[in-house]
Write a structure and sequence with these properties.
713 residues; two-stranded antiparallel sheet; mainly alpha; single chain
Length: 713
């Protein structure tokens, strides 16, 4: 069944493709082959096709990711929405913005700044082959501050860095960002900037990349920071305005009523957004017979030529009036929908009934913006127009309950045995719209960020606690630490207001872990200390064991191994006392404790702890069993039992096969084992692969392995 895809991939690779496609296939093939063997294989179309087909048949996750990349375009990530089919004019601006560097694109709302960015990405695809990425900074803005670290992580993932290799510590993240972006030749679009601080550190150091920054009214500091003359856009030239009207109605009708069309374009201030809405209305009036342009013009005359943003408001009001009652109601509801976008399922949830037909009508009316993804959004100007008619609290209430249900369902499907302290609910069959549950929740993460504050303000403390608890599984698997900290901030306040000590303790410890993973230890310590103090007042050994684990991990991250071991011993003791109820946590904590003792050189109890850990996991949990085998292999290598270590390491690799987040860690351990046996050539090969993984990701450990390779040479 995979022959066509495998053949397409093989031909693309043989032609010298770079970017995400090659990176993904190369990394998977390199698990079992030397680097030079992979290169020669990829150059041979027949051999490459066979190898790729074998990967597709054996690894569903790889197959899904490969199909996504092929759909985006094999030469790299294509994350910029496609240029509007109705794009006209702007030839001068397109020529002026083609050179690398930073270019500001300024103009009033509705002038088509974002459309110009999308068209430029289409024009310049071959000039910037390593990727085309679009970020709306408004989606990452908390008040006046942009969460730039989240933007950086988003860009790194867009450039092909695996989520588990995106650094969490702030300093490491920015070092990684500079390293990765310095080696890429890509186009980066940063929409809706306001001040220079929005862009600080996000502009790549590479002189060969192009950064397109849009702003309505750029501040003086932004103009001073990037002194190249901004590309200013406004209304279209008259003939292009008429062309745009014709594209959304009928060019012959526009020409037949040319005088009326010229006046209509003038009333629209020649602004593309207003012209689109006017053209759509003309098209609808044409169904009634001739004189459609004059009819629409008469309606616009009643409001008058107002200029600027008022032109957009006028066009919106005229178009909104022609919507069916269902479409108008859905538009108002979606304007109050938290977050930057929505799906058909979430639109149906806020609508209270199937939303497909009403969404189609909004799309036909020109109200929905292209996103380049299955997710949809209202144009910002449409959202503003709808909100002028009043917010719809019912949309927020319905969205809160829907997204809560989705998060809880994804949590239970992804990790059914995890410790949970949030109020249980029975979730009806969820609709993840054809995606893996965790992928669906990940795509909606900015909506969850917006919902957190909305839920707190409305005193929906139970639902907010459920969202915080369920989203922990997202952070564990995908990161997004800053966003998770933002959500937890409101969740912690809600848990305390609710008076739920167990939930409060859980969120305190989650927040502490988030901060120590970011290496913000001063922020983590008081949270973990409060969690310890609170949990001691509860009769909840499972929760206390978890808090002890987090405290142990805090000290391990700080390099304080004896203290880390003490906390983990307490966790293990609590787990043992819980008998069957503590089996899973005992398996995890005894493995963690063994690893810390191994690091500290205290070997006496390591083997017994690992045996105890393995006994807690069923054969249906190969990932945890594989983690135990990996620590066991490290121990055997450390005490000089090299043959046993090799067998254990091979078994660990078999158990976690397909989990690409462990690739570099395994290459490192294979390398250390070969070095311990004196096989320096093989050690060099494994260290080279580990270094390549870290180098491609711009990870801080790249320098460490570069030094290892230099010494080995």
């Amino acid at each position: 069944m995979w022959e066509v895809i495998a053949g397409e991939v093989a031909k693309t690779l043989a032609a010298g493709a770079a970017g995400g496609l090659k990176d993904l296939v190369t990394k998977r093939l390199a698990r079992r082959r030397a680097a030079q063997d992979v290169e020669s294989l990829l150059a041979d179309t027949d051999r490459a096709e066979t190898a790729v087909r074998e990967l597709l048949e054996s690894d569903p996750a790889f197959a899904e990711r490969l199909q996504e990349i092929l759909a985006q375009g094999a030469a790299g990530e294509r994350d910029v929405p496609g240029a509007p089919v109705h794009f006209v004019d702007r030839d001068v601006e397109r020529r002026n913005a083609a050179a690398s560097g930073v270019r500001l694109i300024t103009g009033p709302r509705g002038a088509g700044k974002s459309a110009l960015v999308c068209k430029l990405a289409e024009d310049l695809r071959d000039r910037y082959p390593d990727g085309q990425l679009y970020v709306d900074l408004g989606n990452y803005r908390d008040g006046s501050v942009v969460r730039r670290s989240d933007v950086a992580a988003r860009i790194l993932r867009g450039l092909g860095v695996e989520a588990n290799l995106v650094s969490t510590g702030t300093a490491d993240l920015w070092a990684q960002y500079r390293s990765v972006t310095a080696r890429r030749r890509f186009l980066l679009a940063l929409d809706n900037a306001e001040v220079a601080a929005d862009l600080r550190e996000l502009v790549p150091p590479s002189p060969s990349s192009l950064v397109l920054v849009t702003a309505i009214r750029p501040g003086d500091d932004l103009l001073a920071e990037y002194p190249a003359p901004p590309i200013e856009i406004g209304g279209l030239e008259r003939d292009f305005s008429l062309e745009l009207l014709g594209r959304f109605s009928d060019p012959a009708a526009i020409e037949a009523e040319r005088a009326a069309a010229v006046e209509l374009a003038g009333l629209c201030d020649h602004m593309p957004f207003a012209l689109v809405l006017a053209g759509i209305r003309v098209g609808k009036r044409l169904r009634r017979g001739p004189g459609a342009v004059a009819s629409v013009l008469a309606g616009f005359r009643e409001t008058g030529a107002l200029g600027g943003i008022d032109v957009i408001a006028m066009a919106f009001e005229q178009s909104f009036a022609e919507l069916s009652p269902d479409a108008a109601e859905l538009c108002r509801l979606l304007a109050s929908h938290p977050g930057p976008d929505f799906t058909t399922a979430s639109a149906t949830a806020v609508f209270g009934k199937p939303a497909g037909d009403a969404l189609d009508e909004l799309a036909d009316a020109g109200f929905l913006a292209p996103t380049g993804t299955p997710r949809q959004q209202l144009f910002n100007l449409i959202r503003e127009g709808a909100l002028r008619r009043g917010t719809k609290d019912v949309a927020i209430t319905r969205a809160l309950e829907f997204y809560r249900d989705q998060a809880v369902a994804a949590d239970h499907r992804t990790s059914p045995d995890r410790l949970r302290c949030y109020a249980p609910i029975s979730v009806p069959a969820p609709d993840f719209e054809g995606k893996h549950p965790l992928d669906w929740v990940d795509d909606a993460r900015e909506t969850y960020g917006a919902l957190a504050y909305q839920a707190f303000e409305r005193k929906r403390d139970v639902e907010l606690g459920q969202i915080c608890g369920a989203l922990e599984v997202l952070m564990l698997n995908r990161g997004h630490h800053r966003l998770f900290a933002h959500i937890n901030h409101w969740g912690l306040l809600a848990a305390k207001r609710l008076g739920d000590p167990a939930l409060t303790t859980r969120i305190l410890s989650q927040q502490g872990r988030t901060f120590f993973l970011l290496h913000e230890f001063d922020r983590a310590r008081p949270l973990l200390e409060e969690a310890l103090e609170t949990v001691r007042t509860l009769d909840n050994p499972a929760l206390e064991s978890s808090v002890q684990e987090f405290c142990g991990r805090f000290h391990e991250e700080k390099g304080l191994l004896p203290a880390a071991a003490d906390f983990l011993w307490r966790a293990v003791t609590l787990d043992r006392a819980m008998a069957d109820a503590g089996r899973r946590s005992l398996g995890i904590h005894s493995r963690m404790l063994a690893n810390v003792l191994l690091k500290a050189g205290a070997y006496d109890q390591v083997w017994a702890l690992l045996a105890e850990s393995a006994q807690q996991f069923p054969s249906t949990d190969p990932r945890n069993l594989g983690r135990v085998s990996l620590v066991r292999a490290k121990y055997l290598r450390t005490v000089g039992r090299h043959d046993d270590a090799e067998r254990e390491l091979a078994e660990a690799w078999r158990l976690v096969s397909g989990a690409t987040q462990y690739t570099a860690e395994f290459e490192e351990e294979f390398g250390r084992l070969c070095a311990a046996r004196g096989d320096h050539a093989r050690a060099h090969t494994h260290f080279q692969r580990a270094w390549q993984t870290y180098f491609d990701a711009g990870h801080p450990r790249e320098a460490e392995f570069r030094a290892v390779l230099a010494n080995a040479g």
